[in-house]
Known about the structure:
The protein has helices at 2-20, 41-51; strands spanning 26-34, 61-67, 70-73, 79-80, 97-101, 105-112. The chain contains 2 helices and 6 strands, in the order H-E-H-E-E-E-E-E. The chain has a domain at 2-68 and 101-112: 2-Layer Sandwich (hypothetical protein PF0899 fold), CATH 3.30.2320.50. It is an alpha+beta fold. Helix content is 27%, strand content 31%. The two termini are 32 Å apart. Bound molecules: zinc ion (ZN). Residues 73, 75-76, 78, 89, 91-92, 94 line the site of zinc ion (ZN).
Amino acid sequence: xxxxxxxxxxxxxxxxxxxxxxxxxxxxxxxxxxxxxxxxxxxxxxxxxxxxxxxxxxxxxxxxxxxxxxxxxxxxxxxxxxxxxxxxxxxxxxxxxxxxxxxxxxxxxxxxx
Length: 113
Ligand SMILES: [Zn+2]
């Protein structure tokens, strides 16, 4: 249930950003999650609703974008999409793998006035 903790942290960022920008209310919050963050959008949204209650973002619509995972082999440099059944590089079999995309967790934008 890490959604609750993430929702609390992101809602704090949203309200602080809105205050700094002088927003009276936040209409929309666009959030990006990498696939590896393994967020359940419905659970996250419920947790976020709770976290923004009685704040400037209370009525904000939430838009969640999931960024697909992508890995890069350190040995041969090939890029590939992970699959659950195999570890290592698709091309050379190396286990030295970097995560290029999939661990993102950030607020893309906040809309309001
Ligand atoms: Zn490789």
